[in-house]
Specification:
This protein has 85 residues and is an all-alpha fold. The protein has 4 helices and no strands. The protein is elongated, with a radius of gyration of 27 Å. It starts with 9 loop residues before the first helix and ends with a helix.
């Protein structure tokens, strides 16, 4: 853990102080929790959401085969198209 110093506006400090007293914790812990939620958990939630989508369409029969589709694009003769332009 690293130590840092923050300058807080009076109204922010008063709100944190009141909440810390009500919850029986410290202002430092409230700030650490808020920073974790704001900057760390979002990425973790986003990663989990993306992982949930992996393979979501693998059993769909209404979609063309992705490998064959990419191969058909590669068979296209780009040089001929460029010469026509």
């Amino acid at each position: 853990m690293h130590r840092t110093q923050l300058y807080l506006d009076d109204d922010v400090w008063a709100a944190l102080r009141g909440r810390a007293k009500r919850e029986g914790t410290t202002i430092s812990e409230l700030v650490r929790t808020a920073v974790r939620e704001q900057y760390l958990n979002k990425w973790d939630k986003r990663r989990k959401a993306m992982e949930a989508w992996i393979g979501v369409a693998k059993n769909r029969t209404d979609l063309p085969d992705a490998t064959e589709y990419v191969r058909s694009l590669r068979r296209d003769n780009r040089w001929e198209r460029l010469e026509k332009e």
